[in-house]
Amino acid sequence: MSNITFGTGVKMISRNQATHFISMGLLFLSSTLFCGSSIAQSTDFQPVFQKSVSNLRNQRYCEVLVGKRAWLNLEVKVFNTQGLNLCPEAQWKELTKDSISKKFDASFVLLNGPRYWTMDEIQAAGSTVNDVKESFGGMEMNLRATIQLSLLKQLMGSNQYTPNEISRTTNFIYRVGSAVYELTSPGGDVYVMQSYSQIVNPALNMKDLPVLGEQLKLPAGWTYRSRVLDQELSLVANGIAYVLQDNLSNSYQRR
Question: What is the pTM of this model?
């Protein structure tokens, strides 16, 4: 089946290439979710946050994405270790896409992690809390979202340093005295890091973030900086968040 191709209208690409592009798009999407709904919400109301998780800074988490394809659509279930465990390294390393694919009869599996939060607290609103759990190699994960995706859209790819709209209602809180890590676009938009990743650079850690600009391949006109807050920073996504990733798969939300 390796010769199966997907047509994008301008170029035919192999199934392996298609899987790669879908993986990159889903990797971006999954890393931006926290109890997020896959259905866009109205932005003309003030959210009442119903769930709060604190002491998150530098807390490790991992995700498993399980997808089932139906022709040109993909239903993806996002499972996350947040609140259940810290994604033990030994168990995470034992996970394989093949074993998960067989267990769930999945057509697509993505292992997204390890990742680490860079904010201090997350608040979430809406009916997004559920008790659905699955075990992956003995490691429990909650179902955080079910996403309906168009394969054709995913094949277009999500570029690095390009903001995407994510449907969720959250408040990311950064406390006074905490460090924040920001990208600024040529147009002046500021994006605050919400999580750093060890997917591209397994050795990346919190100590590297103040000088992360030395590792980033910033597009022309973009800048990176670290600063310590003298007042609390609250990033509210009232239905839609604008999120991008750098070339190391670290994720940022627009202020």
Answer: 0.78
